Amino acid sequence: MKTGSLISSRLRPLSLLCLFGALVVASSAQTITVDNEDAEFSLLSGEWSTGTYGTPWGSYYHWAMTTGVGEASASAEWRPDLPVSGYYYVSVYYVPGTNRAEDAPFTVHHAGGDTLVEINQQINGETWVQLGAFSFNAGTSGSVELSNDAGASVVIADAVRFEAAVTTVELAMLVNPPGWGTTTPAPGGPYAQYLNEVVPISAEAYEGYSFHHWEVTAGAAVTDPSSPDTTVVMDEDKTVRAVFVAGGSPSEEFRGFWADAFHVGFKSTSQIDDMITRALSGNYNAILPEIMAYQDSGSSAHGAYWDSAIVPQATDISGGIDPLAYLVQEAHANGLEVHPWLVTFRASSSWPPSGNTTLANHPEWIMVTEDNIGDGPQPTNGKYELDPGCPGVQEYLLSIVRELVTNYDIDGIHWDYIRYTDSTSGYPAYTWFDDSGLARFKRISGYSGTPSPTYGAWCDFRRREITELIRRVQVEIATNTNNPQQPLRHSAALVTWGNAPSSFESTSSWAVFQNWREWTEQGYLDTAIPMTYYDYDTYPLWYQNWVDASVGWSYDRHCVIGPGVYLNDFEDSLVEIEYTRSAGADGVCTYSYADTNSGSSEWEWYTDWAPEVFDEPAATPEMTWRDPLTTSEGNVYGRVTDGATGEPIDDAEIELDGSAVAYTDGNGFFVITRIGGSTAGVPVAITATYSGYADVTRSAVLVTCAGYTEANLAFGDWRNGDYDVDGDVDGDDFAQFEVYLTGPDQGPPAPGGDLFDFDFDDDIDLHDFRDMQRDTGSSPPRGYGAAR
What pLDDT, on a 0 to 100 scale, did the predictor assign at position 215? Predict the structure, then answer.
């Protein structure tokens, strides 16, 4: 939930006597609930309808289409008659749904001003969702207003509850460094606040200094950590600290460190607290914790360092905590980002993998070297590794990403070992398995027999396998609507062995099938982080050459250099970091958190040495290509299947306005990036071609700036409304139809919605819904795939 103050209300330091009096008055007030069926509810403006889906409060709710889908403004109001003055918790009730706005704007008009609270009405519904605690005068002067000024596609107006507030918590205020500025409330305290009260706070820098950011010791972070005028929700006792810097605000720079799973770092609350303290001391702004080094729980530092339903939990976590949840909470409260680090294909060091029933049930997902083909699961370089080209493996890894991005407010996903560890690997553990990477290669290329590890086309296909996963993950994290940290950053640790050649095809990365130049050029990665682990006393030119080459291969995406501080003394580490700046890199990520000096681990790096180069706090650089206001490019993705069966089509050729630009993977997915778009959307024609089928086209797919437009296609006959092209029309498809519904003469539909415009009249209305219904469960399908 995001909160923001429209008009600042006055904060109240309460004496014990005043506090006691307020509690007595509040405790005597009753809870007031105003339903949309009550006289205290009014429709102020615009078009509103009623609905009964789900479990409303009362017998029905009101709903309105949003301005985000082109509707005129509308608003509704709940105005209670409160018996006494005092503080009240204000909560709203609504029925959730996939077509609800994620930013439904409720404005609380209270005695201290007006406060806007945006609610994601897709989740947490059919219960009371609290907006905060606010001061109200007795009578009807206070109210809650809901407008439809939100993103797609509807807002729900049902019931609002006003409940007397009696519980208090304490707020303390600090400035850092002392004497560089002040705050409102004034530094000091503690100040008594009501539980969940939304408190306005502000910071003012003294001459010669600038405000930089807010830090919070516990609970929810401030609404906008970088704004001097913001609010904080008092969900528990907390100290809020205003951080000031000398002179003007510093330039943007990514400053991260890798925290591996084999040392201290994030396995207990005390380790995490220490890590946060050190990051702040060194003026870092990002932490990359290795939350998945292995995918089993067989020994120390294996398994998941988060509460996962997919990967068994690591065995060396102390205190029964969810390490990732606590790390994200504390990092965000202190203005730090968290980018979970995943080792990609490494499953386990023994077979079967302890605790991981999914992998144990799929031994065919393991790849082996050429010498072990067909011998069942065998280790590669001592580790059991997943087959990157197997569609099941790709879906499994995507499920892990989806779990992390959906359940945790992380700032991105970071990959390691996103490559082959042995160029002779990639062969199936079982020759009968027809969905291995090798089986796919043979079907697509027509190759018979078993190619040698050095066969050119087979090497190229293994590079393609890795790229297929990278581009799918980019879409997965960019289109996730549950994570409030969007836009999320997609990054990877990249190979830089030896000296940097002039040709990427001559690099060590190319030799292990890691084509990261394509990933930055196509925009599949937001941030490339080359692992430039070089002892500067021995290999200064190799370090410099790799920095220069990496910046040159970044293609308008961020290039963050990864110095190996563990190989250098402190002085040489500073030299390496300064060189990255002179070369134009977008920042650094040091390896590692717990090993900061050649021959030893010295924490003084964070207190005494890192501040030499990171002399004041800095924000991470903005990803301008993810902002519709700063880019003219967009993206299209989708899935290609057999329309009658829903089976994916592997290696279908995808054409953009007549030119081949992509091929589908083993799950039928394709991605096209960096297409010219506009705010309203530029129509492009997407065509899929595959031997044995007639071509299928969507002639007007809208490409929006920084957008990701879904454009699924199906060969042969398929059902109207089968949006996910899985061979049926069901609730999943209807959920999408609801999102794109425009009403008659209200088009064009939003990007991706052209698939539902069955009568080609540039809107999506009940005529289209009728056609969709006709194909629900019909057999054979009556669709018209080739016409699309």
Answer: 87
Pairing of strands 384-386, 425-428: unpaired
Mean pLDDT in residue range 221-225: 86
Answer yes or no: are the C-beta atoms of 87 and 126 closer than 8 Å.
no
User: In degrees rounded to 5, what are phi and psi of residue 398?
Assistant: -65, -35
Residue type, 228: P
* Other beta carbons within 10 Å of 309: 8
> Is the Cβ–Cβ distance between 173 and 186 less than 8 Å?
yes
Tell the residue number behind the tokens 């990701």, with chain if given.
708
pLDDT in tens, 243-287: 888 775 457 899 999 999 999 999 999 999 999 999 999 999 999
Residue 497 to residues 511, 539, 575, Cα–Cα distance (Å): 10, 12, 20
- Phi and psi at 138, nearest 5°, equal -65, 150
Q: What is the mean pLDDT of the chain?
A: 90
Q: What is the DSSP letter of 451?
A: -
Q: What is the largest CA-CA distance in the chain?
A: 88
Q: Coil, strand, or helix at residue 3?
A: strand
Tell which phi-psi region holds residue 589, choosing left (phi > 0), alpha (psi between -120 and 50) or beta: beta
Structure tokens at 387: 């087959």
CB atoms within 10 A of CB 738: 17
Question: Within 10 Å of residue 58's Cβ, how many Cβ atoms?
Answer: 14
Distance CA 735, CA 9 (A): 41
Residue type, 124: N
The residues, ordered by sequence, that sit 6+ positions from 496 with a Cβ below 8 Å of its Cβ are 507, 508, 509, 530, 531, 532, 533, 546, 550
- Which residues have CB under 8 Å from 401's CB, separation 6+? 342, 413, 473, 476, 477
Q: What is the pLDDT of residues 394-436, one digit of tens each?
A: 999 999 999 999 999 999 999 999 999 999 999 999 999 999 9
Among the listed residues 328, 220, 310, the one whose alpha carbon sits nearest the alpha carbon of residue 266 = 328
End-to-end CA distance of the chain: 39
Q: At 16, is the pLDDT very low, low, confident or very high (cuts 50, 70, 90)?
A: very low
CA–CA dist 764, 418 (Å, integer): 42
CB atoms within 10 A of CB 211: 22
Question: What one-character-per-residue DSSP string does 558-584 give?
Answer: EE-B---GGGS-HHHHHHHHHHHHHTT
Q: With pLDDT > 70 as the criterion, what percentage of the chain qualifies? A: 93
Tell me the CA distances in angstroms from 516 to 383, 415, 491, one per residue in order: 24, 12, 11
Q: If we measure between CA atoms, which residue out of 158, 110, 113 comes closest to residue 138?
A: 110
Q: Are 459 and 386 in contact (CB under 8 A)?
A: no
Pairing state between β 384-386 and 412-416: unpaired
Provide the Cα torsion 774, 777, 778, 784; round to 10°: 70
Average pLDDT for residues 341-354, to the nearest whole number? 96
**Alpha-carbon distance 199 to 13, whole Å?**
12
CA 394 → CA 435, 466, 709, distances in Å?
11, 9, 21
Angstrom CA distances, 276 to 223, 242, 574, 699, stand at 20, 17, 21, 51
Distance CA 232, CA 197 (A): 8
| 543-560 exposure pattern, b = at least 16 Cβ within 10 A, e = fewer | bbbbbbbbbebbbebbbb
Task: Return d(Cα 734, Cα 165) in angstroms, integer.
Answer: 42
Nearest to 94 by CA among 70, 114, 123: 123
Rounded Cα distance, 661 and 636, in Å: 11
Residue partners of 265: CB distance under 8 A and separation at least 6: 259, 271, 272, 275, 289, 593, 594
**pLDDT at site 243:** 86
Question: How far apart (Å, rounded) are the C-alpha atoms in residues 13 and 184?
Answer: 11
